[in-house]
Amino acid sequence: MLTRRIFLGAATLSTLGVLGGRAASAGKDPEPSDAITIGYVPIACSSPLLAADAMDAFRRRGLNVTLRRFAGWADLWSAYLTGQLHVTHMLSPMAVTPTSRPTNLAYTMNTNGQAITVASRLHSEISGLQDLRGRVIGIPFEYSIHSLLLRDALVAHGVDPVADLELRLLRPADMVAQLEVGGIDGFIGPEPFNQRALATGSGRVLHMTKEFWDRHPCCALAIGEDWQDAHPAQATAVTDALAEASAFLNAPGNHAEAANILSHERYLNQPASLIEPVLEGAYRNWAGEDIIDPERIHFGDATDPAATDWMREQLTRWELV
């Protein structure tokens, strides 16, 4: 099992008023400067953003926020880089990748919360990462913590992530369907899609990514430096709203209510029965043991400079920049 020490070594190199929330926009350009359109991909990592909207945490801070949903990361990133979005949910490595638009990783929305799920049909053939040679494994984006963590973990187990297997780009929403029809042998991805594979019986969790690096960053709120410099008070208010929502999501007594909020069609559009176990930390591992891990996913941790250094180093290591 890998540890965070290994990764840092590499670096050296009732529903709270949900019905009153603002609906996600399908393709609307940004409003005038007093309004903020925030992009997101509907995965559990975006929960602080979605909960803040449902709780009116933005409005109570004088912000006029509209959420705009994207099916995948490439479209969201394109919208951000072309100025259609100034504030957006991003995979943390996206936020630290050098691009034409200087970007601040303004808030770490979640740590942990990802898993490597492998087809149940392969249970007798696979006991660890070394057995993924020759397999097809889905990843959500090259510029993701999933991509970087998996590559690093495979190398530590003697597997070349370029030559020994195929890493196939898939939208998170397509991963379980591809697993079910045999298009892939497994995936590393966000929730609630690992939980969906568990619920349908199509997949089993081989590893939670926190087993490699506990409290690793995953998703972030990214803000264009140009917009933040012009709107510093609004930028601070946005992150304050996310901190309020993160505290709500982390509180054990709120998990059922939070799952109901997040399940709404304009947010995650997934059954609450798939979201609540994620928040509670309940899952069945590869060995068939029922686990309760309250740290399966956590929201709003401080951004770790060593983690951002590690992501930059890994992006260079795998020639992604």
From TrEMBL:
<dbReference type="InterPro" id="IPR044527">
    <property type="entry name" value="NrtA/CpmA_ABC-bd_dom"/>
</dbReference>
<dbReference type="Pfam" id="PF13379">
    <property type="entry name" value="NMT1_2"/>
</dbReference>
<keyword id="KW-1003">Cell membrane</keyword>
<keyword id="KW-0472">Membrane</keyword>
<keyword id="KW-0997">Cell inner membrane</keyword>
<keyword id="KW-0813">Transport</keyword>
<protein>
    <submittedName>
        <fullName>ABC transporter substrate-binding protein</fullName>
    </submittedName>
</protein>
<dbReference type="InterPro" id="IPR006311">
    <property type="entry name" value="TAT_signal"/>
</dbReference>
<comment type="similarity">
    <text>Belongs to the CmpA/NrtA family.</text>
</comment>
<dbReference type="GO" id="GO:0005886">
    <property type="term" value="C:plasma membrane"/>
</dbReference>
